[in-house]
Design brief:
Number of strands: 4
Radius of gyration: 33 Å
Number of helices: 17
Order of helices and strands: EEHHHHHHEHHEHHHHHHHHH
Helix content: 55-70%
Oligomer: single chain
Shape: globular
Structural class: mainly alpha
Amino acid sequence: MSITMRLSWKGDKMPEQVTAFVRHTPLPPSPPPASQTGMVKWLRENLFSSVFNAILTVLALYFIYKILAGFIPWMMNGVWNTSSIAECYAVLDGKRGGCFSVLTERWHQLIFGFKYPSDQYWRPSLSFILLLISVAPVLFSKLPRKMLLITAIYPFLAYWLIWGGTVIVPLIGLLGFVGGFKVFQAMAQQKFAVGFFAATFAALLIWYLGSYLSAPLSNFIALEAVPSRDMGGFMLNIILGTVCVSLSIPLGILLALGRQSDLPVIRVICVVFIEFIRGVPLITLLFVANVVLAYVLPPGTNFDLILRVIIMITLFSAAYIAEVIRGGLAALPTGQYEAAGSLGLDYAQSMRLIILPQALKVSIPGIVNVAVGLFKDTTLVSIISMFDLVGMIRGPILASTEWNGIYWELLGFAAVLFFIVCYGISQYSQWLERQLATDHR
């Protein structure tokens, strides 16, 4: 306790001693003003921080109210159990509501197309589940590395499940892949290019020899064959998006490295290819795949349309990914290349162990942006008479008398499916960036 002394003189009297008490503890803090805490503070700082922001906030709330005022009754009064648009309007009886019966009536066509056998829907469904399992060890490094075996087998298994036929065909393809990989491991120690071409030759040789063996064993563990022209719906978008993204990333890496090659021939070829593909609309390439190739190929050649479309979309997206990766390579300081050379690493080793891992981390946002755009661009195949999700809506469903005139329900359903996939890709990329900490390493 503190004591203060104060002396006062009154004439001839002795000084008078006065004491004052000081608190042991400070006064409790006063609560902050209501405008500086809680929801009021958040609203003031984020929505009403200035007159202009306040006006924008009020206008935005007004538009949100108008949208919800029309959307909520349309959803709540929706009809789900009629067989035609006429019955739907009869049930609504003048009320505002959506005819969602088209989704319950035609969901199988929207997902699988209108020609895929209905008793075989389990095959693409199982392929989609296995797809999620097979990409898990690639997307999440903490999973056991042994699961990569599933990733390697999945493309051949999915081909057999979706297209059907004998299991011998995908087995031969798997053997060709394994044989080519073993040849590449043996030859790449001497020179990367020699190993690559030797592996390609070995894989093609195994495939060519295996094609003669597949005829006698055509009935060995066979599923009902489904031709490519019967593929459709959102399943076709998933097939094109998954395959083209998976193929375009390694091809884009090779093009980016080729553009920086010291060999003039390789550099010129890569530059001309990238600039030409980037200067041509995708729809033009799809028309080339659908129409022009039929005149170029020899008469009687049966070149699968889906394979032609996959090739064109892959080449298109690989050119854009090559530019993204080239930007990542250019972002690395020259000291990284010098450090790789000082360790005695050759070109292939330095790229695989030092340069590309860093460049790919920097390029993640750009690669994801191309992948999302590519997946949405798969809807352009409806222009060349392929019945993907949008093609099914524009073609067989809206052309039928039962559902002619239904637009918002079908297009909204398509938008939701694409949003789920694209949003999932975007969220994964953001998570991966946080894990790799690309802005700090």
